Amino acid sequence: MSAAALASHYDVERIRGDFPILETLVRGRRLVYLDNAATSQKPVAVIKALREYWETSNANVHRGVHFLSMKATTQFDKARETVRVFLNASSTQEIIFTKGCSEGINLVAASLFSTASPKSSHGNGSLSPLEPGDVLLVSNMEHHSNIVPWQLLAARTGAIVKPIPITDQGEIDQNAYDDLLGQGRVRLVAVNHVSNSLGTINPIKLMSQKAHAIGAFVMVDGAQAGPHLSIDVQDLDADFYTLSCHKIYAPTGIGVLYGKKTLLEAMPPYQGGGDMIRTVDFSGTTFAELPFKFEAGTPNISGVIGLGAAIEYLASLGQGESLREKLVHSFAQFSDHENRLARQAEDQLRQVSGVRIYGQAKEKASVISFTIDGVHPHDIGTFLDAEGVAVRAGHHCCMPVMTRYGIPATARASFALYNTEADVEALVKAVSNVKEMFA
Ligand SMILES: Cc1ncc(COP(=O)(O)O)c(C=O)c1O
């Protein structure tokens, strides 16, 4: 469908009606919520699903033989299938529930290279323990969640974390990446699908192919792709992919780790406890099948059910026969709508003297990082808030990105499916006012 056709079908006012919090007045002004990269607002469908769960289905899952437990388990298992479709994974065994994107990455960092058998190998790489000097390549535009777990792993093993440089435009320098892949024993590449600080959409499929060609695994942080792109993990072919579900209109405290089944099967458990075992005896313990092997303890049942409701809500905004088709259509509409607003906002912000925009990648999502000469980003955030405009100010948990551009922080406006042209106008007007006030 063409961009014009997508736009003509998109009824943003109707969608806004599904998000009660957008009615909020901020000191008498209309809320302009542009902090969606930090967390998104929740539709009535999710709020209702949570309420219904607590009122009619609350019980522990996978343990009970009673009515409520079976009801909760059915809903919980259904949500896993919904997530499988969302990611186009081939099996629900590849869908691990976590508490967030960070936990998914920590799980992989703790388990991937810790197999007992030094010879274990998998199609794309070797699971054998890291050796001193082994290389973990981490892009320079990662959130701290996709840097620090690798640094901790490197500190335990003697491996080296090497940054993959980014260009002035905010794209991964593919020539430098090619060179780095050829230097030393590279065991893993860690990269985000969409950068939360620059908005760059990274070429994951290409980067995975290159990494696999030299026997390295690929860990993708999909926290910021989840709300904007239709994700197909089979097509991307990365080994691991994480989601931060509160950014995709679901509750906080729930995340997803996708991993290729054969790889997850070969990896040892991350945490021990209830639900992740088959048998326990003091002579030895055997572990449950995937995905339960990686889900010790009582899961975030309401969070998972809320996540299922969020994905179904997103699908309900699209057209198609199957859930997958609806999602693909929905996300084509979302990215068309959000990108149009973000590019409009960028064009107008550039007209305000002293505004600098960081991140000019050719492939970019609806995230705008900017500074105003002579104004600290925290002051930008505070003055915008006075006009009802919510943006984020700070390093966005991407200190290496700030260092790369020689700045301490930026202000960041990030768009979601419910933002409007009126939001763009309010943002640009508020930024112009800040500029005038400090001039
Ligand atoms: C790119 C990116 N990665 C990771 C995270 C952390 O996600 P979580 O809070 O779910 O662990 C965020 C959150 O802002 C993010 O934007």
Question: How would you summarize the topology of this molecule?
Answer:
Layout: H1 3-9, H2 12-16, E1 25-26, E2 29-30, E3 32-33, H3 44-57, H4 67-87, E4 95-98, H5 101-111, E5 121-122, E6 125-126, E7 135-139, H6 148-157, E8 160-164, H7 174-181, E9 186-192, H8 204-213, E10 217-221, H9 233-236, E11 240-244, E12 255-259, H10 261-266, E13 277-281, E14 284-287, H11 301-316, H12 323-350, E15 355-358, E16 367-372, H13 377-386, E17 389-390, E18 392-394, H14 399-405, E19 410-414, H15 421-438
Parallel strand pairs: 3-17, 7-8, 7-9, 9-10, 10-11
Antiparallel strand pairs: 1-2, 4-12, 5-6, 11-12, 13-14, 15-16, 16-19, 18-19
Bound molecules: pyridoxal-5'-phosphate.
Q: How would you state the average pLDDT, rounded? A: 95
Distance between the termini: 46 Å
Please tell me what the overall shape is. Answer: globular
CATH architecture assignment name of the largest domain: 3-Layer(aba) Sandwich
Q: Helix count, per DSSP? A: 15
Low-pLDDT stretches are none
Spatially, the strands of the biggest sheet line up as: 4-12-11-10-9-7-8
Count of spatially separate domains:
2
- CATH topology category name of the largest domain: Aspartate Aminotransferase, domain 2
